[in-house]
């Protein structure tokens, strides 16, 4: 072991043993399977699990095991072993909660078992996932297990990608996609069974879906339509509040996992978790066999890139097999995310650096070690200022267990927690549900579109009143609803709800024909809907920044992005061109796909696509139609040289231009701005900003402009 990396102080062998139930949080490493109706022991089934070692290789998208091996692996799963009992329970109850260990087979097996028995009848089975990468990879796995093409009996549906057909019976989908379907069909008539998986994640969409399925179930019963079965699943959920919410429905605990996971805690508090992670990686790398891959949890793209760079540098001199480092974060283009599931060359160790998108649901084969920094980047939103705060926080205990549960899925594993056992015990059991800390305008629009009255809609946790008020008032400002009390969609609101994007952006698209710039607006909104198109590698920062200059527009970041997109669309050898220009080829390709989809919706709405050419004022005015609540004025008014670079937003919050903005160098600084996002990271920064003429606001949104003047 390299002496540089011995200072971590991981406590040896601090194993967990057996399942302990603490407020609904499961502990790992169990040998027996017990299936019982909450607490009762009357119907226990006891099955000893046989540890089996399956180091099969996954390639070709993500699975390339032989069908018979896949079947053998299925048979070893705790869920499969008690399938008959489980199916009985599923048949008996309209709604049930299923709690089972991570990796026990809930997500992959329950829908298959239901389908094998044809319990879904003429309808289909919807299985929701909070994250797209999980929906895709699990669907691919299940299709392979069922020996069928993806998109036929088994399919998936995620934003901007629908791989299903009329034959699809088992449909994995993001919770957001099922929510979109609920607008068109609030009774979810296509489905006879809805499985809401990873319920503990408490995303806004899943929370709203709980209410949607509850209402749909009731109404389908009242109208004597085919009943809707609902199964809520997780390994680590807050059982009591869910049980209460679902009218005391039965809770089935399924105890048992295929492989054990040993938990190690840091002996002492780690001041720098990135450093601690790198130390631990190389400590383990020196001794672990090459076919043991590592999964490291970090907080975001920038951090992942820094750690990746450090690992690559240190790896040149470190003891151990060759290393392949793979990033995995939401902003990574979908195809690149799936590369994590591809095998590294034999004898090479894969080290995956992931955010919490790999925390729940996913199985990445060969992961033997999980290194958990115990932190997550969380967004909280203030309805008052419209600002989002991005902060790094300690994860909940449930998240720690979920992370540990990414090991022990295809072989025995270990989780190295870079925090002490006392720190772990002091953490809250569950994180704050998103609905209590995120903007709700999109969700409100969908609810209203689905014919639901937001104030009476049944939610597990009621969102803060000021957040509901701010969201409804934004929808009213945008002209999407007629009133904040008892709201109904307007004609434009109905059209807005058909776009799978933020209401403010759909408003921009709908206003674009008026400004003769739908062509430009589509490109711009597509780029804004995908991740960062600029690629700034740490070691070539200067060069990348220099290259960016050629796309810069003095009008600001939006037109700069448009310049990039236009140039990309014209480039003949796109990949090479992106490389030379320090642009992210995958993200730009993704933006092109998004544009196609948005264009299809516009054409369905009979909108005419025209271009304003170089008249970019038109584009900015059009942008202002959706983003007029995102204006800022220079402090002390125009010409306030002393206050250069310091602005005040329409909501009265002080904010600065982000250092990466194209407008940073502009002198004198523009008197008025339009921004896409307001982010607080210590200071309040406006992101993706354009210069506007102060009088435009008056022209585009006169009523709002009047109120702003009165408040300033
Ligand atoms: N892509 C894959 N490659 C290899 N094995 C897989 C894959 N997906 C699933 N498995 C196997 O199937 C098992 C069950 O996975 P499944 O996702 O159904 O578990 P789960 O109970 O839903 O777990 P979690 O609570 O973590 O979501 C895994 O532990 C693993 O052994």
UniProtKB/TrEMBL annotation:
Residues 280-451 form the Helicase C-terminal domain. It holds the Pfam family OB_NTP_bind. InterPro entries: DEAD-box_helicase_OB_fold (IPR011709), DEAD/DEAH_box_helicase_dom (IPR011545), DNA/RNA_helicase_DEAH_CS (IPR002464), HA2_WH (IPR048333), Helicase-assoc_dom (IPR007502), Helicase_ATP-bd (IPR014001), Helicase_C-like (IPR001650), P-loop_NTPase (IPR027417). One of its GO terms (biological process) is positive regulation of transcription by RNA polymerase I. The keyword Hydrolase applies. It catalyses: ATP + H2O = ADP + phosphate + H(+). GO terms for cellular component: nucleolus. Its EC number is 3.6.4.13. Residues 87-255 form the Helicase ATP-binding domain. It is an enzyme of class 3 (hydrolase). SMART domains: DEXDc (SM00487), HA2 (SM00847), HELICc (SM00490). Keywords: ATP-binding, Helicase, Hydrolase, Nucleotide-binding. GO terms for molecular function: ATP binding; double-stranded RNA binding; hydrolase activity; RNA helicase activity. PANTHER family: ATP-DEPENDENT RNA HELICASE, ATP-DEPENDENT RNA HELICASE DHX33. This is RNA helicase.
């Amino acid at each position: 072991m390299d002496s540089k990396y011995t200072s971590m102080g991981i406590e040896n062998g601090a194993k967990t043993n057996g399942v302990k139930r603490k407020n609904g949080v499961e502990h790992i490493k169990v040998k027996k399977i017990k299936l019982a109706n909450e607490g009762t022991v009357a119907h226990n089934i006891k099955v000893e699990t046989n540890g089996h070692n399956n180091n099969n290789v996954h390639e070709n998208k993500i699975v390339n095991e032989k069908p018979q091996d896949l079947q053998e692996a299925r048979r070893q799963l705790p869920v499969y072993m008690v399938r008959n009992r489980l199916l009985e329970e599923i048949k008996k109850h309209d709604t049930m909660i299923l709690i089972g260990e991570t990796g026990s087979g809930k997500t992959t097996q329950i829908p298959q078992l239901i389908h094998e028995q044809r319990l879904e009848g003429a309808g289909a089975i919807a299985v929701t996932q909070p994250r797209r990468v999980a929906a895709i990879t699990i669907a691919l796995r299940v299709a392979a297990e069922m020996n069928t093409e993806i998109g036929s009996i088994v399919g998936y549906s995620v934003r901007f990608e629908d791989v299903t057909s009329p034959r699809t019976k088992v449909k994995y989908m993001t919770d957001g996609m099922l929510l979109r379907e609920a607008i068109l069909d609030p009774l979810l008539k296509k489905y006879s069974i809805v499985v809401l998986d990873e319920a503990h994640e408490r995303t806004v969409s899943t929370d709203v879906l709980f209410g949607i399925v509850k209402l749909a179930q009731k109404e389908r019963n009242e109208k004597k339509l085919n009943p809707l079965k609902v199964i809520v699943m997780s390994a680590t959920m807050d059982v009591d509040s869910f049980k209460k919410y679902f009218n005391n429905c039965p809770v089935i605990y399924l105890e048992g996992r295929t492989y054990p996971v040993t938990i190690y805690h840091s002996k002492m508090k780690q001041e720098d978790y990135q450093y601690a992670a790198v130390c631990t990686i190389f400590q383990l790398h020196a001794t672990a066999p090459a076919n043991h891959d590592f999964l490291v949890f970090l907080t975001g793209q920038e951090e992942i890139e820094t750690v990746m760079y450090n690992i690559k540098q240190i790896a040149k001199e470190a003891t151990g097999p060759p290393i392949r480092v793979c990033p995995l974060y939401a902003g990574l283009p979908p195809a690149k995310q799936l590369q994590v599931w591809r095998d590294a060359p034999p004898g090479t160790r894969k080290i995956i650096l992931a955010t919490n998108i790999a925390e729940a649901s996913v199985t990445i084969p060969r992961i033997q070690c999980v290194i958990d920094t115990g932190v997550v980047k969380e967004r909280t939103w203030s309805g008052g200022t419209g600002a989002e705060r991005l902060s790094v926080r300690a994860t909940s205990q449930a998240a720690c267990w979920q992370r540990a549960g990414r090991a022990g899925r295809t072989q025995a594993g270990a989780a190295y927690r870079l925090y002490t056992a006392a720190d772990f015990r002091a953490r809250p059991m569950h994180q704050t549900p998103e609905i209590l800390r995120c903007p709700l305008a999109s969700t409100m629009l969908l609810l209203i579109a689905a014919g639901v009255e937001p104030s009476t809609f049944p939610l597990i946790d009621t969102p803060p009143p000021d957040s509901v008020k701010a969201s409804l008032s934004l929808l009213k400002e945008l002209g999407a609803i007629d009133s904040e009390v008892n709201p109904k969609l307007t004609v434009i609101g109905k059209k807005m709800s058909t776009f799978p994007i933020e209401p403010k952006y759909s408003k921009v698209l709908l206003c674009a024909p008026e400004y003769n710039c739908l062509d430009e607006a589509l490109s711009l909104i597509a780029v804004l809907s995908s991740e960062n198109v600029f690629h700034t590698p740490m070691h070539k920062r200067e060069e990348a920044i220099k290259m960016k200059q050629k796309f810069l527009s003095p009008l600001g970041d939006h037109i700069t992005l448009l310049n990039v997109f236009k140039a990309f669309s014209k480039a003949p050898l796109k990949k090479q061109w992106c490389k030379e220009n320090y642009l992210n080829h995958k993200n730009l390709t993704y933006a092109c796909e998004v544009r196609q989809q948005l264009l299809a919706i516009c054409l369905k709405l009979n909108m005419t696509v025209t271009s304003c050419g170089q008249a970019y004022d038109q584009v900015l005015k059009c942008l202002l139609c959706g983003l007029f609540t995102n204006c800022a004025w220079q402090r002390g008014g125009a010409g306030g040289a002393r206050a250069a670079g310091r602005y005040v937003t329409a909501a009265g919050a002080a904010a600065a231009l982000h250092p990466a903005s194209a407008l940073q160098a502009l002198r004198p600084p523009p008197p008025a701005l339009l921004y896409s996002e307001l982010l607080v990271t210590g200071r309040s920064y406006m992101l993706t900003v354009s210069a506007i003429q102060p009088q435009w606001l008056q022209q585009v949104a006169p009523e709002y402009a009047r109120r702003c003047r009165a408040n300033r």
